[in-house]
């Protein structure tokens, strides 16, 4: 498993690109939407992460276009990026399942039981 200095940024970016290619601002917007506002990327953080994702072969540049005299680069999830996202999603699902089981067990232990009770 690849280790990242910013796993939330990495996984959020891969998740945002799972549906369709996006440019930088579109990625920032989609990550915020998908996280219900809990993750808010700044451009410097995003573009640093995108450079690492490109270097690792997890995303690729699908196309570039000029909009208002500025270059807009669209990023696409690669097959390797999709595999990593699927693996991490499964790992997180198992972790949530285990945590949920522990919480349920804790709740059952914490619930007082009435014995021979009064109706």
UniProtKB/TrEMBL annotation:
Ranges of residues in domain Transcription regulator PadR N-terminal: 14-85
Signal peptide positions (record): none
Origin superkingdom: Bacteria
Pfam families according to UniProt: PadR
SUPFAM superfamilies: Winged helix' DNA-binding domain
InterPro entries named in the record: Metal_resp_DNA-bind_regulator, Tscrpt_reg_PadR_N, WH-like_DNA-bd_sf, WH_DNA-bd_sf
Record-given protein name: PadR family transcriptional regulator
């Amino acid at each position: 498993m690849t280790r990242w200095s910013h796993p939330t940024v990495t996984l959020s970016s891969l998740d945002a690109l799972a549906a369709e290619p996006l440019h930088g601002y579109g990625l920032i917007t989609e990550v915020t939407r998908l996280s219900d506002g809990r993750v808010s990327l700044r451009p410097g953080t995003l573009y640093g992460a995108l450079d690492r994702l490109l270097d690792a072969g997890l995303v690729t540049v699908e196309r570039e276009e000029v909009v208002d005299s500025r270059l807009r680069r669209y990023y696409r999830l690669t097959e390797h990026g999709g595999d990593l996202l699927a693996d991490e999603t499964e790992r997180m699902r198992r972790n949530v399942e285990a945590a949920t089981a522990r919480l349920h067990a804790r709740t059952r232990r914490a619930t007082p039981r009435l014995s021979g009770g009064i109706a």
